Amino acid sequence: MKNLWKITLATMLLCASVNPAGAAEPIKIGSFLTVTGPASFLGDPELKTLQMVVEDINAKGGVKGRKLELVHYDTGGNAKDAVNFAKRLIKNDNVDLIIGGTTTGDTLAVIPDVEKEGVPFISLAGAVEIIEPVKKWVFKTPHTDRMAAAKIYGDLRKRGLTQVALITGDGGFDKSGREQLLKLAPQYGITIVADESYGNKDTDMTAQLTKIRAAGAQAIINFGLGQAPAIVTKNIKQLGIALPLYQSHGVASKTFIDLAGDAAEGARLPAAALVVAEQLPDADPQKPVLLAYKNKYEAKYGPVSTFGGHAYDGLMIAVAALQRAGGADKAKVRDEIEKTQGFIGTAGVFNMTPQDHMGLNLDAFKLVEIRNGSWKIVE
């Protein structure tokens, strides 16, 4: 037994000399995403992006000589699972930071835990309430629903359209978007003449749209994500409603166009420049970043979406913070994320502050229109 102990001790000492404490320890990136379920077309490209970028960073030597290790769980869009997974990431997996929360519901559910445990968390969801009021450990990369509402209303004002009908889903993102649309309407001279809703698992919205048709609206805004907005879009065409249709940035992927088919023709929405990267002027500082990510992603997985872009932005902001922090100390990394300035991402140029844990302005949004089955810049 004594000899066995000597051999074991010698082996441990040898390992310690070859692999000094912390030298080869990976930096653990935790993630919980909606890869399956109704919002899978958001979570799937997010996970693929994280895997692709982590692989690329590791191939180049990692961060400060340490490889990245991605620890991921699929919530299926269940907020209770998101909470359990977040706790597991923090308590069992001992991750250094978390990038995830595909949906607003999943994100809001885990905020109390990440705040309590002091873990840097970069959300990939849209609602403004994720970062307002500011939470010490919480950041996000997608444009907010308030920004989307402002972008849509700005275009309606340019077109001289003031009588608007709303139709929104029952998810957290949908409800938050509706709240922002109602709140901002007076500032843009918009009158809401109809306010209808649906369940995100519904398969027909003609009853609500029939009411909208009778309301005297000049335009329709559908704020939602998943398959439901495509159903709304097809139902509008089936009913012969010939009104301008606006969607939210929650449908900024080729999947929406494929689901809605020719009914989507002419629909407008605010979106990240990623979906129209080739249309940007060559002098735009975002263009090379967008094309590099887009080309790499599409060569590996197929058509790019803005949702994968949000994951790219979150991970690259985190990596830059890790580099500046000189390691994975959570408090130092949090501070460095908050100091992010001039970071050119897929969603825009990020300039965070202690008062702004997103760092994007309204100019980061492009207003796009669906023409001949693809995206075209309106402005």
Provide the descriptors you would attach to this structure in a database record:
Rossmann fold; 12 helices; 379 residues; alpha/beta; five-stranded parallel sheet; single chain; disordered N terminus; four-stranded parallel sheet
The CATH level-2 architecture of the largest domain is identified as 3-Layer(aba) Sandwich
Largest sheet: 5 strands, parallel
Q: What percent strand? A: 15-25%
- End-to-end distance, in Å? 78 Å
The name CATH uses for the topology of the largest domain is Rossmann fold
Order of helices and strands: HEHEHEHEEHEHEHEHEHEHHHEEEE
CATH class of the largest domain: Alpha Beta
Mean pLDDT metric = 93
Radius of gyration: 22 Å
How is the largest sheet built, in terms of strand order?
Answer: 2-1-3-4-5
**What is the chains' assembly state?**
single chain
How many domain regions? 2
Structural class: alpha/beta
The poorly predicted ranges are 1-22
What is the helix tally?
12
Sum up the overall morphology in one term.
globular
Tell me the number of strands: 14
Describe this structure in words.
The protein has a five-stranded parallel β-sheet with strand order 2-1-3-4-5, with helices on both faces. A four-stranded parallel β-sheet has the order 7-6-8-9. A three-stranded antiparallel β-sheet has the order 10-13-14, covered by helices on one side. The chain is of the alpha/beta class. The protein has two domains: 27-145 and 286-364, Rossmann fold (3-Layer(aba) Sandwich), CATH 3.40.50.2300; 146-278 and 366-377, 3-Layer(aba) Sandwich (Rossmann fold). Residues 1-22 have low confidence and may be disordered. The protein is globular, with a radius of gyration of 22 Å. Helix 2 (40-59) runs parallel beside helix 11, helix 8 packs parallel to helix 9 and helix 11 (306-325) packs across helix 12 (330-338). Helix 6 links the parallel strand 6 and strand 7. The protein has twelve helices and 14 strands.
